[in-house]
User: What shape does this take?
Amino acid sequence: MKSLARFYPLLLIVITIASLWFAWVGWLDSDDKRHVVEGIGWYEQFPYVGPLHPSLRHPIVFPLGMSFRLFGINEFSVILPNLLYYAGLLAVTYVFLARFTNRHIAFIATALITTTPIFVIQATVVFSDITEAFFVALSFWLFMEATRIERPTLWLLLGAGAAAAMGWFTRETVGALILLFGVLFLAGYKLPRARYWIMAGGFLPLVALEALFMWSMTGSPIYRYTTMLFSRENFNKKGELAGDVFNRIGNVSVNPVVDPVVVLFANHEFGLLFFFALPVALWACFSKALPANERALARILSILAVLWFLLVALGMINLHPRYFTVTAYAAAIILAIWLYRLLVGPRRLLAVAVIVVLFGANLTAIYLDNRNPLFGERSLRAYLEENPVALRTDPVTQRRTEFFLTIDGREDLVAGGLPEPGDLYFYNPNRAIEIRRSDLDPRDYAPKPGWELVWQAEEDRRLTGIVLEALGLNRHLPQGLWRRLDAPNLPVAVYRIPAS
Assistant: This one.
């Protein structure tokens, strides 16, 4: 392993690029749309504060505005800031973990993180979680570095507090990290308690400056918190069942009490991470076989993972797997410590077997993920590139294609509404559930006898679906699961409707 150590950074770059290519999703027209709208606000107006809570995620929307200024408004400029945060997360993890333990553990942990679906898929979509994880990791490791060296500088602790503040501006679940620092303060871990207040000196001034900014822009220094509470009170829960296995947000739903635990073990975004990490964490926290610094790190990360899990489980309305990103981050590092100890001990073959299983599960989970959830909308865009003609589609597809149409300069070509005689009509059956949620009947937007098929696009089938069908096993699978294994998206088509 020592001979390979000097190549670790290069290997991680290669692994990360390959993982991003394999897991790429891109524009999703979900939370990323809200962030882009607020990023355009910064692009068009400086300074800027919007009416909704995504505008208050300054570490996300301000870089978006700068990216638009440099590269224009397009899919690349939308995703670029998130990719930079992701690169920062990996770099911070590798550099500081190597200093706190060794380069081998740092390499294993970073490689595990960058191949786990919950990280690498999110890196290609503008959600809050990668940005939040970056600032959490930066704050955590600056603090840990301050505890590692004999005479910690003021700037390490001030930086830890400032990074926590930036995480707070991204999403308030960073409160779990602040709780962790509170626990370590009470325990008097490594530093005199007075030094913990230096972190507050990095955190509170930024929070105060933001309050002053909000006061100057909106007249209310607590605008962030009133807006957040308003959004929460008016938020509709999205966990209703949408199939026989998976609910609307993709979780296996059993019971509200146990669902937070089920998310960690049943959702493919985590692969097999928590199946190994849970027993390993229990071992690492108490094992005398570990060096003291690794055991202490495992304990602190375990506390962070539990605090984050509890805050999300009790405080978030929907249990999106991505909300547990920081819990997964802590689990991956603890698991890397154990794997390294196996590799340098007599159980090297066991370590190799576990690594193969973990990475194999991650790649399989990425493969089975619906990495093209806008298949219909991207197909419509592709059709218009070849045939720039006016057409009609259902209101949901029209709305979810707006971004593509706007950046292509074709926003006037597509109308949303009921199909009418003489229309050229784009049919997207993948939006049937969303049409129904809009209190509309999907059957009103489905093809009728006499419509002329003009063009059709079908998603390539997956090898898993072809094999399962050949074995006759597809008949025994729930429909929702079968679609994931075969082809997540239904074919789309363009029809010409008779004039009368």
